[in-house]
Design goal:
This protein has one helix at residues 2-28; strands at residues 33-34, 37-38, 40-41, 46-50, 58-64, 69-76, 84-94, 97-103, 119-121, 125-126, 132-142, 148-153. By secondary structure, it is α+β, with helices and mostly antiparallel strands. The strands form two sheets. Strands 3, 4, 5, 6, 7, 8, 9, 10, 11 and 12 form a ten-stranded antiparallel sheet that branches. The chain has a two-stranded antiparallel ribbon with strand order 1-2. Strand 1 (33-34) and strand 2 (37-38) form a beta hairpin. The longest helix has 27 residues, at 2-28. It starts with a helix and ends in a 5-residue tail after the last strand.
Length: 158
C-alpha cells in the first residue's frame, strides 16, 4: 500500500511540474490582448460594476507593449446577452489635458463587445513622450433602451 501511495505521489508531482507552464499561459491570456498577442497591464485592472449596485462583472485596464504603445482592454465575466453591448474607451492626455479618445470601433480596435462576446481592445496610441498619460474605461448598455447598465474606469496613469 505504501508503494502505491508513493507512486501516486510521484505521478502527481510529475503532473504538477507540467501544469505551471500551461496555467501561466491560461492566466496571462485573458488580460491585455491585442489581436493574437498580449501586452502588460500598466496598473491593476479596475472593476466594471452595475450602476444599480453589486459586485464586479468584469475588468478594464490600460495595457502597454514593448514600444510604449498603449491601448485599453476590457473583459466581462459573461458574454453580452442579445439586448446588451459594451464599449471600451482609451483617453490620452498631454500635460494633464485630454487630447484624444479612441474606442474599440476605431480602426485598429476589434469592434464593441456584441452579444455573445466578452472582450474588446482599442487601437494603440503612442506613449513615448513622458508627457502622455492614459485612462481606460468601459460602459455596458441596453441595446433596446440605450440605458447605461454598468461602468468602470482606471485612474489616469503613465
Amino acid at each position: 500500500m505504501k508503494k502505491v501511495i508513493a507512486a501516486l505521489g510521484v505521478a502527481v508531482a510529475a503532473l504538477g511540474c507540467l501544469t505551471p507552464a500551461a496555467s501561466a499561459q491560461t492566466q496571462a491570456a485573458p488580460h491585455c490582448q491585442y489581436g493574437s498577442s498580449y501586452g502588460v497591464v500598466v496598473q491593476p485592472a479596475a472593476a466594471i460594476t452595475p450602476v444599480s449596485g453589486g459586485g464586479s462583472i468584469g475588468t478594464v485596464e490600460v495595457c502597454r507593449d514593448g514600444n510604449y504603445d498603449y491601448w485599453a482592454f476590457a473583459i466581462y465575466n459573461s458574454p453580452m446577452t442579445v439586448s446588451e453591448y459594451a464599449q471600451v474607451y482609451l483617453n490620452r492626455f498631454r500635460d494633464g489635458g485630454l487630447t484624444e479618445t479612441v474606442t474599440c470601433d476605431d480602426p485598429g480596435g476589434n469592434k464593441r463587445i456584441a452579444p455573445g462576446q466578452t472582450r474588446c481592445w482599442t487601437p494603440k496610441l503612442t506613449g513615448l513622450s513622458g508627457r502622455w498619460t492614459f485612462q481606460a474605461y468601459s460602459q455596458k448598455f441596453s441595446s433596446h433602451t440605450g440605458s447605461l447598465l454598468a461602468t468602470g474606469h482606471t485612474g489616469i496613469i503613465r
